[in-house]
Structures are given as structure tokens and as C-alpha cells.
Amino acid sequence: MRQPDLSLPRTGQDHTASPYEPELGEMPSNDLSADDLENVNKTGTTTVGITTAEGVVVATDMRASLGGRFVSNKNVQKVEQIHPTAALTLVGSVGGAQSFIRSLEAESNLYEARRGEDISIEALATLAGNFARGGPFFAINPILGGVDDDGHHVYSIDPAGGVMADDYTVTGSGLTVAYGTLEREYEEDMTNEEAKRVAASAINAAVERDTGSGNGVYLAEVTQEGVDIAGHEDFEELL
User: Where residue 197 sits, what CATH number does that domain have?
Assistant: First the structure.
């Protein structure tokens, strides 16, 4: 058998390597300097997820900022549908969060195409945690809220890939203020309408004190029928 000529160079590779061996790629680096971080569009953000008797309610503010000091956009939709009955929030760097959502949505669609059924919310949360831990998604801390045959679910996904389920949760720069409001107003087995008011109240409290949050609220209502997302610039109509 004729042996390959290993003396020929291979573009971008060690010329001594066999052309018949697999080439291994590398994950893109997300190492950013302090100067880089100052110029990254961040959502800042306060996001809330609440389980209800009817499904799940997810709420976010509408502000994006540069370095937490300059408001770069006043109408950012920080919650997206990624599954027929699930929504995910954007928290952290805008680019990282958008890439994270696109990746999860693609995997959800691929699962459905291969198996002919929707992925469970628990499995989707596990996948989200795996992506956060091993992927190039910089500085994300989203909330996943969804409904499936096993019930109504809210998960927080931390930047290291930790996945925590709870009846309600808050992430983002305004979480300490929002949590206080949520602890006071949350009740078990609320309707979606009641939960929307409580979630909006928590976002409103954070907006008053957190410079990274502001300019209104997006509310996502998740039920067995699907996901409905609406933006509101005026909190008064919700409270």
C-alpha cells in the first residue's frame, strides 16, 4: 500500500501530521479585558419568573446599557420564545445572551424534528446549563420558564451552568430589590393575571433603584396553548 507523503505542508497545521487523522477545532475564547468589558452592550437587567396555577409568567425590564453607565437602548425585548411552551430571558452581555437563545432554540427544533415530540422543560433546562458551562456565552444568567406534561416550571441558569428550579426566581443586577417585593407579594396558585401584576411590581421596584434596569417591562405568559409576549412602557396600567 502506498504511504502518504508527509513532507507536504498542510495549511494551518503541523506538516508532520497525517492528512488521514481528524483535525480538532477549538472553542472560541471569551477572555475579555477590563477595557473590552466597558464597551460591551449589557442588559444590566432585572428578570423575574413565577410559576402559577395556569402556567408561568416571566417578566423583564427593557433597558440595555454600556458599562452600566450609559443607556444604549430603551426598548430591548429581553425574553424570547425558544420552545412551543417555554420562554428564556436575556441577562448579561447582549451578544452572549442572543447567541445562547439561538443555540437553545435550534437544539429544541432539532429535537422535535428527530423525535416528533417537544423536548421536556427539565431536559431543556439541563441543556441550557450544559451550554452555559461549556460554551462561549459570555456573562449570562437567564431564567427559563415553561409548561409541559409534568407541570409548570421555572429555572434559573447561573453563568457556571448551575440549574436551579423554584416556584419563583429573580436574576440580574436589580435582583436584591425585586426579590424583596416578590417575597412580600407572591402567593401559591396565583392566576397568570395575578402573577403578571406581582412580576411587574417586582420589576418596577428594581427600576426605581437599579441603574441597569428601566424603561418599562416585557411580560411573557406561558401556558399549554403557547407563549404570549407583550411590552409595556407604563407600569401604572399593570399595577
Answer: 3.60.20.10
Q: What amino acid positions are annotated as catalytic residues?
A: 45
Residue 82 within a domain: yes
**Binning pLDDT at 50, 70 and 90, where does residue 35 land?**
low
Q: List, as one string, the DSSP characters of the chain.
A: -PPP-TTS--TTS-TTS-TTSPPP--PPP----HHHHHTSEE---EEEEEE-SSSEEEEEE--EEETTTEEEES----EEEEETTEEEE--BBHHHHHHHHHHHHHHHHHHHHHHSSPPPHHHHHHHHHHHHHHS--TTB--EEEEEETTEEEEEEE-TT--EEE-SEEEEETTHHHHHHHHHHH--TT--HHHHHHHHHHHHHHHHHH-TTS-S-EEEEEEETTEEEEEEES-GGGT-
User: How many domains does one find in the chain?
Assistant: 1
Question: Residue 48's domain spans which residues?
Answer: 41-237
Q: Establish if 165 belongs to a structural domain.
A: yes
Residue 70 lies in a domain: yes
Residue with cell 448579561: 92
> 50 in a domain, yes or no?
yes
Residue 129 has pLDDT above 50, yes or no: yes
Please give the average per-residue pLDDT across 200-205, as a whole number: 97
Q: What pTM does this model have?
A: 0.80
